[in-house]
Amino acid sequence: MVGFAVVGLGMGRNRCRTIWDTEGAELKIVVDLDETRLGQAGSEFGVEGTTDLDAALDREDVDAVMVMTPSGTHADLGIRAARAGKHVITTKPMDVSTEACDRLIAACDEAGVLCGVDYQSRYVDNNWRVAEALRQGWLGKPILGEVRFKWFRAQSYFEASGGWRGTWKMDGGGSLANQGAHLLDVLCWFMGDAASVYGEMAIMNHEIETEDIGLAIVNFESGAKGTVVGTTTFPASAYFSAEVHGTHGGVLILDVLSGDMQVFGEGLEERLTAVENPIKNIIQDVVSAVERKTALRVDGREGRRTVALLESIYTSARKGRPIDVVA
Question: Residue 327 pLDDT more than 90?
Answer without folding.
Answer: no
